[in-house]
Write a structure and sequence with these properties.
Keywords: Amino-acid transport, ATP-binding, Cell membrane, Membrane, Nucleotide-binding, Transport. This is Ectoine/hydroxyectoine ABC transporter ATP-binding protein EhuA. It is a peripheral membrane protein. The strands form 3 sheets. Strands 8-9-10-3-11-12 form a 6-stranded mixed sheet, with helices on both faces. The chain is globular. A hairpin with a 2-residue loop joins strand 4 and strand 5. Helix content is about 35%, strand content about 25%. The chain has helices spanning about 5-10, 65-70, 100-110, 125-135, 145-155, 170-185, 200-215, 230-235, 255-260, 265-270, and strands spanning about 25-35, 35-45, 50-55, 80-85, 85, 90-95, 95-100, 110-115, 190-195, 220-225, 240-245, 245-250. The chain binds adenosine-5'-diphosphate. Adenosine-5'-diphosphate (ADP) binds near residues 61 and 64. Adenosine-5'-diphosphate binds near residues 37 and 59.
């Protein structure tokens, strides 16, 4: 039987020889503008396999846009993103970059699990069906196999007893945990979290953070946009502070939260801590 949890770990481990020490995510010169508004002004960032990187910064600094450009929900205005050595959304033909076909992009996007602020579950599907639909449609996983994997994932996020519940019957925290299970079902190489807890009532935040912590302890590569500074400090290998579309500074949680070197980081942290 196909073991989804084993697969996640295998997928995420450094299994492909020469590529093992390459960054799993490589971002070069990433830019995004909306009209005359330059939201990302040339971001360079490498994320190692298994690394937990959190991105903090003031509202409007471009954090969400960065995540959306990584998995190409938004098309960048410039620069390139590679995941596991593979260029995302474009191909190099001669010396020109051309857009990749939608089907190929969908396949690559499946390798990046995205968890949104709003849970984005399909309202007309049960928890189980929300999890199986991606593997069945995109990965062509047979239904029985997809279901077994989905059940194991529901178990993992503590919701095995909610398999037949529709999203409206679930609390926000439960919906978000199903959303995490749904992303994991695609056996992603990296998980992207976009303020995954900021739409939740305070008493429901903990259950989602604890699932994220468990995932981190299992070696998943995670890029986490968050306002939860304590969580960020606890979970991250590296913290990135963004402001006005640039990476202002980055370092260990200790460096960023205790001894930030930039005035902008200091000012931001004074306001939020
Ligand atoms: P953050 O996540 O740090 O709060 P965002 O990436 O959401 O920042 O937004 C950065 C800036 O880009 C903001 O000024 C926002 O208004 C603008 N922006 C984001 N998406 C769009 C869009 N689709 N059209 C126009 N402006 C946008």
């Amino acid at each position: 039987m196909h073991d989804p949890i084993q697969s996640i770990e295998t997928n995420n481990a450094a299994t492909d020889g020469a590529a093992a020490d390459q960054p799993i995510v490589r971002i070069r010169g990433l830019r995004k503008s909306y009209g005359s508004l330059d939201v990302l002004k040339g971001i360079d960032l490498d994320v190692r396999r298994g690394e937990k990187v959190s991105i903090i910064g003031p509202s409007g600094s471009g954090k969400t846009t960065l995540l959306r450009c990584i998995n190409r929900i938004e098309k960048p205005s410039g620069g390139h993103v590679y995941v596991d050595g593979q260029l995302i959304g474009e191909k190099l033909v001669g010396d020109r970059y051309i857009d990749m076909e939608d089907r190929e992009l969908a396949r690559l996007r499946a390798g990046m699990g995205m968890v949104f602020q709003r849970f984005n579950l399909f309202p007309h599907l049960t928890a189980l069906q929300n999890i199986t639909i991606g593997p069945m449609k995109v990965l062509r996983t047979p239904a029985t196999e997809a279901e077994a994997a989905a059940l194991a994932l529901l178990e993992k996020v503590g919701l095995a007893n909610k398999r037949d519940a529709y999203p409206e019957m679930l609390s926000g925290g439960q919906q978000q945990r199903v959303a995490i299970a749904r992303a994991l079902a695609m056996r992603p190489k990296v998980m992207l979290f976009d303020e995954a807890t900021s739409a939740l009532d305070p008493e429901l935040v903990g259950e989602v953070l604890s699932v994220m912590k468990q995932l981190a302890s299992e070696g998943m590569t995670m890029i986490i946009v968050t306002h939860e500074m304590k969580f960020s400090e606890e979970i991250s290998d590296r913290v990135i502070f963004m402001d006005h579309g640039t990476v202002v500074e980055q370092g260990s949680p200790e460096e960023i939260f205790r001894t930030p070197s930039h005035l902008r980081t200091q000012t931001f942290l004074r306001a939020v801590l």
